[in-house]
Specification:
The complex is a heterodimer of chains A (772) and B (152). With 772 residues, chain A is of the alpha+beta class. Chain A is built from 30 helices and 30 strands. Chain A starts with a helix and ends with a helix. In chain B, a hairpin with a 2-residue loop joins strand 4 and strand 5 (51-57). Classes of the chains: A alpha+beta (772), B mainly beta (152).
């Protein structure tokens, strides 16, 4: 009986794959009727299912599959063309077979439902044009067909209508023998025939891969996690010894562990095509029901990500795809009026970028009506009209992700999208991803998802607050600021009791970790006898689109941590993402930055205001106080760069400069940083080239994950200045000129820098992701 | 008559038992990482050979007063949600008891014990309370929730 169970299990898994293939192929074939081999593949798959279930004694399932197969064979023989009705009926059959398979999995038999209606539809379609074709003939065509060679021999029991009555008693071979008798191919070696299911597919696939239980992989992953922890422990303990051979062994262990970790991680990787494969069907059905024509295209199907992530993005992706078809792409009539091809185009694109996976969903529909979005957002009180008027377009689009922006009934009135968009966003953010949206009126919209490759092992920053350690995932980390305790009050200011910090001219709301989690001051007061007066360390974090500063007592270290889920008793606490075990064997909680921000009442509205404030500051930037970095170019040139764009200042020997693709680059913190010479950038201004002094000074500019080093002659000064009106400059790269420190200074146009950086789009944010 | 084996332990004056097969192990007091914002019944998290285990303070779970310098024992039990540790005063023996001395909990019993005990074995000279492991590990998942429960 156990053998039988295994056979059924195998059949279920196999059939599920086959059905997915059939679905894909059917939709594919509908669009490309000239591809006969696609049809052959559909036929093979259905046939295999039919054959196996007759062998296993599922007569209802077999009879349904048989009806579908007969219809298919007519199409294959060219007696019928694959019409939309036929395709729909066949797809319904796939659904019905799925339901039966589910019944088999749960109850052990193929259910009570006969699907007579569906069978009637299938039969009616067969007879629609070729009433004369007898089933007998069809059977013969099957028997004579080229597929026979690779088919399941048990199919012949269908022809004989001799259903196997003695399933229980007879052994596998005994049952095969009589079934094989009437066949002309009975001289086939039995060994080959006794593996009916495996035969239908190419031998290469079965030979080179094995099916592994996900549970086993999870277990292996856990064990690797343990090993990473143990390695960290050994690494820490070893510093006490000075035995070089021990050190060598430890390094080797470390290396092997890393490789092992990567290897196991790879086994859990799945191609995103696995979840995409159901979209053609989704799109087809939805498009038909709304009377649209949509073609789905996919790029980068083979892009891989962790299985848990695949599962997590499945629903949000489906939602977005449905949205694009439902709301994005217009009806054929509207499309023709707008001068677009009848058929709408939906493009799914996936690719790796800097340790993350990007997934884009692009449609060429009507785009999102921004005015309408704003109208609704104001109506619903998500923003005020005044705030909205100050927001740039990309942020206005982002409003559709706001909770409370829409409920189902409002959205039907909107020409844009919105059903449950906040849920999509929350789900993506839950796994440490982000979602962006761009839309061009009349041209279509693009949703861009960024998700990490894996969740199990992440780099994290360890901090201490109120004597407890906490881990903060590094994806949320922007920077660390240390504030001198003596001068603390000069840096940290209060607005109605809420502390803020001026970070390069922008206000950063501050949150005290110990206060939020309630390990409050009394503890420190009790133990140390005094309240720690001010912040010492600010961890600048990105939650959502907002930044905030988390004040902690101590910043310890960064470490690769293994994320472990919390028990049921603690699941409801939104400020933790899990826990991990540190090198010293103690458990440390991992902060969920988003949940934490919510807990700390960094609510959207407040943040909106804070940001609106920032924006108005930047709009009037020319008059307002600005922090500028003054650099020297050539012999006399003085150029000012706004400090808010600058990530770091560096001085490096000339020898580190290398060339990549004709571009000067340096290796910088584990990534390749393109370097451009300011004198070249501003070539038209007639500056001299930089002097060769053996070393060079470089201003690292960062924007949205892109980085570039600007090579300058010398870094002169950083100063706060109120710029008067600029003297407009016609020179590219120069915003204008102003008098700074009694000397005329050019203000650099940062946008120009990005336009001149050939590598600027490559590998953004790779620095944060090294070692992921 | 069927007999069952119970791992027994004491909390305050109460004598409890958990079916032996549900018990993963019994260990001494461990280092705990406190979980701020969690229910006070959750004493913290401990590292049990690489597994992170939530420890539930049975004294607090049963509304019993805290003890000074409490060095609780951990009774680690297997549940559907993984291992959970119950912090108890003292460990007793593993007892084999016959089902014919089992009775349901008298209805007059009030307080938290009522919620977490499924039955009573009438042993010689003492009563063994059978812990409902599913109930005993279900605690409010944060401070806020606990207050809501109290208010309700």
């Amino acid at each position: 009986m156990g053998e039988m169970d295994a056979a059924i299990q195998e059949f279920l898994v196999e059939s599920d794959e086959n059905l997915s293939q059939v679905e894909r192929d059917l939709v594919d074939f509908e669009g490309h009727p000239e591809q006969r081999e696609t049809l052959a593949s559909i036929f093979r798959a259905i046939h295999t299912i039919k054959g196996t279930c007759s062998f296993l004694g599922y007569s209802k399932l077999e009879s349904l599959a048989h009806t579908g197969e007969t219809l298919l064979s007519l199409v294959r023989d060219g007696d019928l063309a694959l019409s939309a009705e036929i395709a729909s009926a066949l797809l319904s059959m796939v659904d019905a077979v799925r339901q039966m398979l589910a019944a088999i999995e749960q109850t052990g038999n193929d259910g009570a439902e006969e699907y007579q209606d569906l069978k009637n539809v299938l039969l009616a379609l067969q007879k629609s044009e070729q009433a004369s074709i007898a089933t007998e003939e069809t059977q013969r065509s099957v028997r004579d067909s080229e597929f026979l060679v690779v088919e399941d021999p048990s199919e012949y029991s269908v022809v004989d209508q001799g259903s196997p009555s003695d399933v229980e008693e007879s052994s596998f071979k005994d049952r095969l023998a009589p079934v094989l008798q009437p066949s002309s191919s009975s001289d086939k070696p039995k060994a080959e025939l006794s593996a009916p299911v495996g035969e239908a597919r190419g031998p290469s696939a079965t030979d080179s891969s094995i099916r592994v239980d996900v549970g086993l992989l999870d277990k292996l992953m856990n064990m690797v996690g343990e090993r990473v922890l143990t390695r960290n422990q050994i690494g820490q303990g070893l510093s006490k010894f000075e035995d070089p051979s021990l050190l060598y062994a430890s390094q080797r262990l470390s290396l092997i562990t890393t490789e092992l970790q990567e290897g196991i991680m790879k086994t859990r990787m799945q191609q995103i095509g696995n979840i995409w494969s159901k979209f053609p069907r989704v799109v087809r059905d939805l498009a038909m029901s709304c009377g649209k024509e949509v073609r789905i295209e996919m790029e980068g199907k083979e892009t891989e990500l962790d299985k848990t992530l695949i599962e997590a993005i499945k629903d949000p992706l489906t939602h977005l795809v449905r949205n694009s078809v439902d709301h994005g792409i217009e009806t054929p009539t509207v499309r023709l009026e707008r001068g677009k091809p009848r058929e709408g185009r939906l493009l799914l694109r996936a690719y790796h970028e800097g340790g993350q996976v990007n997934i884009e969903i692009t449609d060429d529909g009507g785009g999102i009506n921004v005015e309408r979005v704003v109208e609704i957002a104001v109506q619903k009180g998500v923003v005020t009209a005044e705030q909205a008027s100050k927001m740039p377009e990309c942020e206005l689009l982002g409003l559709i992700f706001q909770p409370g922006f829409s409920t189902a009934e409002q959205v039907t009135n909107v020409s844009g999208r919105g059903v449950g968009m906040d849920v999509v966003k929350t789900n993506i953010e839950k796994i440490g991803g982000t979602i962006d949206i761009t839309s061009e009126s009349g041209r279509g919209s693009t949703f861009k998802l960024k998700v990490p490759l894996t969740l199990a092992i992440i780099p994290a920053l360890i901090v201490t607050s109120a004597g407890e350690r906490f881990a903060i995932p590094q994806v949320s980390l922007l920077e660390l600021v240390r504030v001198d305790k003596e001068n603390g009050s000069q840096h940290i200011e209060c607005i109605q009791g809420s502390p803020v910090y001026r970070s390069r001219g922008q206000l950063l709301p501050l949150v005290y970790l110990n206060k939020v989690i309630g390990l409050g001051n009394q503890l420190i007061q009790g133990e140390l006898g005094h309240v720690v007066p001010t912040a010492s360390n600010i961890v600048v974090l990105q939650a959502d689109t907002r930044r905030f500063g988390l004040v902690v007592d101590e910043v310890n270290d960064t470490e690769e941590i293994v994320v472990k889920p919390l028990g049921k008793q603690l699941k409801g606490i939104s400020i933790y993402a899990g826990a991990t075990i540190m090198g010293d064997g103690k458990v440390v909680l991992i902060l969920d930055v988003l949940g934490f921000a919510q807990k700390a009442h960094l609510r959207d509205r407040e943040k909106d205001q804070a940001e609106a404030h920032d924006r108005s500051a930047s709009l009037t930037t020319v008059q307002a106080l600005q922090t500028l970095l003054l650099v020297k170019v050539g012999r006399q040139g003085r150029v000012a760069i706004p400090v808010s764009h600058i990530a770091r200042l560096e001085e490096m020997p000339d020898t580190v400069k290398e060339t990549a693709g004709g571009q000067e680059v340096v290796q910088y913190r584990g990534a390749i940083l393109p370097v451009i010479r300011l004198s070249m950038l501003l070539a038209t201004c007639g500056y001299d080239t930089e002097e060769q002094t053996g070393t060079f000074q470089m201003v690292v500019v960062k924007d949205r994950g892109r980085q570039v080093g600007i090579m300058v002659d010398r870094i002169l000064d950083i100063l706060d200045v109120t710029l008067g009106p600029l003297t407009r400059s016609e020179q590219p790269g120069i915003l204008g000129s102003a008098v700074v420190q009694d000397r005329v200074t050019d203000l650099l146009d940062i946008d120009m820098v990005w336009q001149h950086t050939p590598l600027s789009d490559a590998e953004p944010e790779s620095i944060d992701c090294v070692g992921v | 008559m069927a007999a069952q084996q119970f791992c027994t332990f004491y909390v305050d004056q109460l004598f409890f038992g958990v079916k032996v097969l549900q018990v993963q192990e019994v260990i001494r007091s461990q280092f705990m990482t406190v979980v701020p914002q969690a229910s006070s019944m959750v004493r913290g998290l401990m590292n049990l050979r690489g597994q992170i285990v939530t420890a539930i303070d049975l004294r607090r779970r049963l509304n019993l007063p805290d003890r000074d310098n409490w060095k609780p024992m951990n009774v680690v039990i297997q549940t559907d949600e993984g291992a959970v540790s119950l912090l108890v005063d003292e460990i007793g023996d593993v007892l084999e008891v016959s089902d014919d001395v089992l009775e349901p909990l008298p209805t007059t019993i009030q307080g938290k014990v009522k919620d977490v005990v499924t039955g009573v074995y009438k042993l010689e000279g003492r009563l063994l309370l059978v812990l409902d492991t599913t109930q005993v590990i279900s605690v409010p998942d944060s401070i806020g929730k606990g207050k809501e429960d109290a208010a309700a």
